[in-house]
Write a structure and sequence with these properties.
With 152 residues, the chain is an alpha+beta fold. It has a domain of 72 residues: SH3 type barrels (Roll), CATH 2.30.30. A six-stranded antiparallel beta sheet has the order 1-6-2-3-4-5. It is rod-shaped and about 85 Å long. The two termini are 35 Å apart.
Length: 152
């Protein structure tokens, strides 16, 4: 059986993992790229989603690169195609491109939420809420009047 201290450390580790996962998810979002050519030249993403004009198919392209006016990379496996395939897609055939981009508003919202939760948990554990100071386990509550000097 684990000690109370080990359980507390395990709970803190789990909470830290949840916080880190939330921040990572909140910092980015998949959104539309208005100018695919300039985006690929400047950002050099590791993955993009491309919808082609001629067949409305979405391709998830890994390691996208430009070769002239053509997007090259590997389409990642899907349910219908279980292998990664080399793709060459002319930019004139791209109807829409999406990529992971920073999401500062979502990140700020998560930080405000985490700050609020932290404050509430802290105030409940340390004090500041309820009927007077928090008592530790096994301590007898002090029953002194306001004008008396207490020894508790």
């Amino acid at each position: 059986m684990r000690s109370a201290k080990a359980q507390q450390i395990g709970a803190y580790g789990l909470a830290s993992g949840v916080v880190l996962a939330s921040l990572t998810a909140a910092c980015t979002a998949v959104s539309s790229v208005p100018k695919p050519l300039s985006y690929l030249e400047v950002q050099q993403p590791t993955e993009v989603w491309v919808i082609r004009k001629h067949n409305d198919t979405t391709y998830r392209i890994s390691q996208p690169r430009l070769q002239g006016d053509t997007l090259i990379g590997f389409s990642l496996p899907t349910e219908t195609s279980p292998m990664a395939l080399y793709q060459e897609i002319p930019l004139t055939d791209v109807r829409q491109m999406r990529a992971k981009q920073s999401a500062p508003i979502r990140t700020a919202a998560v930080l405000v939420g985490l700050g609020t939760v932290s404050y509430v948990v802290y105030s409940q554990l340390v004090g500041g809420g309820g009927n007077g100071p928090k008592q530790g386990p096994g301590q007898i509550p002090c029953d002194c009047d306001f004008d008396e000097v207490c020894a508790c």
